[in-house]
Amino acid sequence: DAGVTQSPTHLIKTRGQHVTLRCSPISGHKSVSWYQQVLGQGPQFIFQYYEKEERGRGNFPDRFSARQFPNYSSELNVNALLLGDSALYLCASSLEWGELFFGEGSRLTVL
Amino acid sequence: LAKTTQPISMDSYEGQEVNITCSHNNIATNDYITWYQQFPSQGPRFIIQGYKTKVTNEVASLFIPADRKSSTLSLPRVSLSDTAVYYCLVGDSGAGSYQLTFGKGTKLSVIP
Predict the structure, then answer these.
(1) Per-residue pLDDT at A14
(2) Closest Cα of chain A to B98: distance in Å?
């Protein structure tokens, strides 16, 4: 069975650019959440979506946005990239609440 | 927002039992407490989840006191492969939306 898949696995951007990260949840999972993990720190919650609606939002600026599609896949968009946005971005899926299944992440480097 | 506190690091010898405690105030009535394990350059992996008292599965036990303001992950007879960062996760609806809060993590080093 396929787990949570994220793309791209690695990418490099420059300040001011825009980035789109993609996530495909486990089949049957309707909830997707996004996390930012800076090196040496724990994952920080960004968004949670369930049935295509935003269920939760973390303390991140409006430059961060996300959406969930009818097939439950999701995109995380970050505009006007800053050096501090360099991090591992993790996507997790779940049935609704409860156990989160994480992908391997997308490592973003902003130069 | 819920705040969680864990020891930054712990060392243990192979074969010993390891207990990692997480403190969490403002946990919501309906929230569960979940622990995750993370190896370098990988996403976190679910270990165990509980609501109150004690939960046990094939890899760990979770102890939660009646006030639910803390939880203790117990790993029996650790091996070198248990060297990883361990996070406790609680939900917080106090801000009007459901926010999932990871602790800062405990880096467990298992020594031969």
Answers:
(1) 98
(2) 5
Do the beta carbons of residue A45 and residue B108 sit within 8 Å?
A: no
- B98 near A CB under 8 A: yes
Which residues touch A91 (CB under 8 Å, ≥6 apart)?
A: A4, A6, A21, A23, A25, A32, A33, A34, A35, A74, A76, A102, A103, A105
Instruction: Tell which residue, B27, B9, B12, B22, has the closest CA to residue B67.
Output: B27
For A38-62, how does the pLDDT look when each residue is reduced to its tens digit (9 = 90+)? 988 889 999 999 999 998 899 999 9
Pairwise CA distance, residues B47 & B108, whole Å: 14
Mutation target vs A (from B100, B101, B102, B104; most A CBs, 10 A cutoff): B100
**Which pair of structure tokens corresponds to residue B92?**
């917080």
Q: Identify whether A8 is preceded by a cis peptide bond (ω within 30 of 0).
A: yes
Give residue B41's pLDDT.
84
Q: Which two tokens stand for residue B4?
A: 């969680």
Rounded distance between C-alpha atoms, residue B112 and residue B14, angstroms: 5
Does B50 touch chain A if contact means CB atoms closer than 8 Å? no
**Chain B closest-CA separation from residue A41 CA (Å):** 6
Instruction: Determine the pLDDT at residue A97.
Output: 66
User: What pLDDT is stored for residue B102 in this prediction?
Assistant: 77
The whole-angstrom separation of Cα A8 and Cα A10 is 6
Spatial contact of B36 and B47, defined as CB atoms under 8 Å apart: yes
Q: Which residues from A are below 8 Å from B105, CB to CB?
A: 41-42
The answer to whether the CB of A74 falls within 8 A of the CB of A91 is: yes
Interface check A104 vs B, CB under 8 A: yes
